[in-house]
Input
Amino acid sequence: MRIPILLLAAALALPLFAQDGQRMEQTQIRAGSPDRERAPEAKITKEDRKHAMQLLESSEGPARGMRDSSTRAYALFQLARAYQQSDKAKAIELYKEAFTASIAGIEELDPHVKREASMAPQQILLAMIPLAPDKVDELLPQLAPQARERVVTQLLGYYIRTRQSDRGLQMIQRIGQEKEIPYGAVSKLMETYGPDHADDRQQLFTVALASFRDHQADHNGFTGGPGDFGTLITQNYKDLPSSLIMQAIDTVLTQARKIDSEAKDQGRPRRRQHRVVERRRAVEWTI
Output
């Protein structure tokens, strides 16, 4: 069974055609077109919209009936995108079907190309985040680890932007189970906490400290970058218990000394620790 590609393309192109016409007109005006008068905007009538929706609906059955899983996933994904503005529930349903088909398509592939194909279900979940973040969370375990990382990061960013602090904390804890957590995201999440969320702020910083301590990679200490654990300390030390901040700084110093010792043994340049020491002395004054 073949999907009526021309019908699907016509339905998808209808709103895009109007947008392209407006962009072309704006470009001509900016370029100094002699005709300065604004041309009448293309209007999409109710009949046009009704016809477009009928075309979309007529494409759903053939799309679901495609035998090849990867092709079926692509067709369902495109249909979901078309429905995204007009029918959120329908778009979510089609995205979920596309995701299931894309996972099945990966299983049908040769092992040597499965890694590249794993990006298809990733793209579907990324498109779903603004519509149904809860559903994305449910489907995440089915993704391969290399594809899951980007979705988790984008989902965390969505929770931070929409000020869903509890879900953001849960997502950071989930990231911490697999890798070192993103300290820049932690800092942004902490900014969403009000004065009455001191316990939540302390819990989140404790999670960040544990992540930094448990990952013995070549940390830079206080680099001043937005995603650096040292920067997280400097941005939040006034709002956290001094004992916790001192513990965090001592952890950074311990790792910095270890790195310096290893560098000395291997004849590599040593890292400077003075910024860490200065911050520790500044915090001591607040105790």
